[in-house]
Write a structure and sequence with these properties.
With about 110 residues, this protein is mainly alpha-helical. It is built from 3 helices and no strands.
Length: about 110
């Protein structure tokens, strides 16, 4: 009967398992790391783009408003991204996982 209850996910690489909390924490850690990198790059690009729009608006109120909105949205986005760290830390302590310790950030 145990053979019938086995479910394999074809989206996961072969040999990987999310059946344990450590396996799940590994995937969450990879997702968070990727999210932080992409979010940081996107915030930088949007903030620079908003700054260029602000500079090139030449005093046009519509252009200034658009540029300020782009820059504000970039800052709000990075604040939301940064607020996910305490949420993940709370989930770590509640479920006894080690989300941020599974995969280390690259060092130079």
């Amino acid at each position: 009967m145990k053979l019938l209850a086995t479910i394999t996910n074809p989206a996961l690489p072969s040999g990987s398992s999310v059946q344990t909390a450590v396996g799940f924490a590994t995937y969450v850690s990879i997702a968070l790391k990727t999210m932080y990198i992409i979010g940081g790059i996107a915030m930088t690009i949007l903030f620079v783009y908003g700054g260029l729009e602000y500079i090139t608006s030449a005093g046009d109120d519509k252009g200034l408003t658009k540029a300020k909105k782009i820059m504000t949205d970039a800052v709000v986005g990075i604040i939301i991204l940064a607020s996910s760290i305490p949420i993940a830390k709370i989930l770590e302590s509640v479920f006894g996982l080690n989300i941020f310790g599974v995969i280390s950030f690259p060092s130079f």
